[in-house]
């Protein structure tokens, strides 16, 4: 702030000196206009600083990737439960863990807990999820 006030005062002082020193003539009005424009630009400099994008803003985004991953995981889990119910008529509790790595959201693991104990369906669901290219798949029956 101190630097800004010093530069604003200097420019205004220089403008006054120039307007007193230059002789009346054809260029007088043009030089006065230019000096006034310079004064205005210096005075509004703090306002223009608001609109600048610095590299630190780009390097440190303000996104909360943990929250986004949680929302994405919850949504994927819900959709997988619906898919398994429609495909296998099996009620389940799914947990799809989504993580953010190198600019991409990736599924890190899938866990499916079936409400019934049927080894045949467990195997079918495991194979189905493997076909869908899921990784770290766990399919198990709910324990009583």
Word description of this protein:
The protein has 144 residues and is of the alpha+beta class. The chain has helices spanning 2-21, 28-43, 45-49, 55-59, 65-88, 119-131; strands spanning 92-101, 104-114, 137-141. A 3-stranded mixed sheet has the order 1-2-3. Strand 2, helix 6 (119-131) and strand 3 form a beta-alpha-beta unit. The longest helix has 24 residues, at 65-88.
Task: Show the helix and strand layout.
Elements: H1 2-21, H2 28-43, H3 45-49, H4 55-59, H5 65-88, E1 92-101, E2 104-114, H6 119-131, E3 137-141
Parallel strand pairs: 2-3
Antiparallel strand pairs: 1-2
- As a percent range, the share of helical residues equals 55-70%
DSSP strand content: 15-25%
Order of helices and strands: HHHHHEEHE
| Helix-strand makeup class | alpha+beta
Based on Cα principal axes, name the global outline: rod-shaped
How would you briefly describe this protein structure?
It contains six helices and three strands; from the N terminus they run αααααββαβ.
What are the key terms here?
3-stranded mixed β-sheet, 144 residues, 6 helices, alpha+beta
């Amino acid at each position: 702030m101190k630097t800004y006030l010093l530069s604003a005062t200097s420019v205004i002082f220089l403008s006054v000196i120039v307007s007193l020193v230059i002789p009346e003539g054809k260029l007088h009005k043009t030089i006065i206009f230019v000096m006034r424009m310079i004064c205005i630009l210096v005075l509004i400099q703090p306002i223009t600083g608001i609109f600048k994008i610095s590299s630190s803003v780009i390097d440190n985004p303000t996104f909360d990737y943990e929250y986004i991953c949680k929302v994405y995981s919850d949504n994927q889990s819900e959709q997988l439960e619906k898919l398994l119910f429609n495909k296998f008529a099996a009620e389940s509790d799914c947990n799809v863990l989504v993580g953010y790595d190198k600019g991409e959201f990736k599924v890190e693991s899938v866990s499916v807990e079936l409400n019934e104990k049927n080894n045949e369906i467990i195997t079918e669901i495991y194979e189905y999820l493997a076909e869908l290219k899921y990784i770290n798949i766990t399919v198990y029956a709910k324990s009583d």
